[in-house]
Amino acid sequence: MKYKLRFSSSLAVCAVAVAVAFYFLIQFLYAETDCHFGTQLLTGIKMFSFQAIYYIFLYVNTRIHANLCFIVVLGLIAILVAVSAFDYNQQWPISALHTSTNAFTHYVQLKIIRVVGWWKLRKLLQATHHVSQAQEFFLMKTLKKYAMTEYGIKHKFSEIKSREDFVRMHPITSYSDYEEYMDRIAKGETNVLLPGLPERMGVSSGTTTGASKMIPICHEFLFQFLTEVLFPLMYVGAKEFELHSKLVRGLFLTYAPKWRYTEAGIPMGPVSAPLKLTKAMDQFNVAFTSPSVCLDITSEQECTYIHWLFALKDPYLCSIGANFASIVYYAFVHLEENWPSLVDDIRLGRVNPDLDIPIGVRNTLNKLMKPNPQRAHELEVEFKKGFDGICLRIWPHCQQIASVSTGPFVLYVDSMRERSYSKGLTVTSPLYTSSEAFIGVNIWPRDENQCYLIHLNTTFFEFIPTAEMDEPQPTAIFPEQVTIGEEYEIIITSINPLYRYRLGDIVRVVRFVNQCPVVEFVRRKGQLLSVKAEKTSEVSMWNAINQCIKQHWTGKRLVDYTCCENALLAQLKGGEKAIIPYYIVFLEFDDGSTLLPDEKQKLDEVLQSLTFPYESFRLKQRIAPMVVHTVRSRTFRDMRRFIVANSMASANQLKIPRVVSKPDHLQYLLDHMIGE
Question: What φ, ψ does residue 428 adopt, rounded to 5°?
């Protein structure tokens, strides 16, 4: 007993010494800091340290057998809090928009994201070693989940035991195969494609295919996006740019979705938008500058203004993002036009009274504003110098513009670089996704050629070779069977649920990661000009326009473009089709200028040099020379708003179609031509 007492007393004395030393160590670490959050945590650590010392002395002086486990646990908690406090204090810079509460929330989120993101990325990379097993595992899990639905029973999901069985027993499908099922689900029928009702009916924009599609979105799909796609990308961002390892915020340009409801009350709208806004959202949306009330602003122009207002308030902004590069580009144009008003609002601590926004939204936003003359002066000085490299001048910590910037969006990336908006920043295309399925993630954000590792754990993939793309039931191959350098149409099987579904995207395989292909987006299958079966792709047209800008249209800076076939013009005008068909091209230049007749002719000549089928039909005079029109400044920006106002698309989803297929879109362009 005497030995035990001496041992316990010695342990207690050591514990007291450790606690005292620990207290003075923390005091020393924070002695020179003016970090408010670190000071708050230091106060908490003092409390834990003093409590530990108190209980230890109580044990020694009274020789009461206090619960030693309790003392040890208390000491461990104190150490854990101290380590967290020390790590917390290293999170500099801290967003100027942070309060102590949401800064702590942000800190906890970052730790969770780092752990989950690392784990999910590791699982994805492990799957690349065993592609067939990973794909079959996902497929069989999905089929088992929906085996007892009407669709699952009809297609005998319970009898399918392998991916080869699935390919043999289930035909390749398109959206027309599901329309009847979608209508029944919208009316409230259950156990059709899903066991119950979907979380929402996801609606595609329809700007490239000509018609919107309804896709039943299950809760698991939204959870997958968060854990399997978003968290790994944020982990990659933290490694490459330290974007998500500090308590700094980014700007994400998002806009109010157009929510409608089916007969059964199921929400219809974009896949990625939140169904409703709550005050709690701002506590969890701490990684971004814009308050959630922005989504109550229905006008894209006013919403963009508010996005910039709160981003400009924060000198520590770390990134700028949007769904598409076109959104970022047009937002920068908006900033260049409206910066004086934005600076005034920051100086006065208010929201511009001329903005057309709901009074409730205005009141909420005004409560978040405080006068900041110093920040306003800093911004005004930099804006008056011009917009060359503006991002790094007003946000020195900004490193990245993240948005889909491949395929048809290359034009907008080039425009941002030409205007020097993005000077000094890395422009990345982080993910490749659609309303129907997740396709791939870009885990190499600094690479000049932006490409995507296909996501084996969220979607079952097949690929249609070029030679079979026009077949109704083509022979498809599995991911590990594709060839580098070849183009393929993607077939997906998703949990949404869609089975062997032709997505309509054409991709090119650029390399492999172990057995898994890495792809780059090429084009949408429907975005073709084909008046005589020549199939001129949007890639060919863009290459021809780009070559003309560099070689023949000296000093011209392209803003946007689109094309159509003359048959659409005949449909619009109610006349007969021309005997010899031709292409119509619409171009917008940043200075609102037009082209001379000889300059317009160059586009036809260059396109012939780049595409043999088009050249052949032109030489045979079976296709007439293309007609090139130029449109007034801001035409394509205003056309975006026109399409949003007259369709189910939201600004987040909108893509300017490279081949116009709707008469009202063509009429809009014709109404804005220069001098014609």
Answer: -120, 155
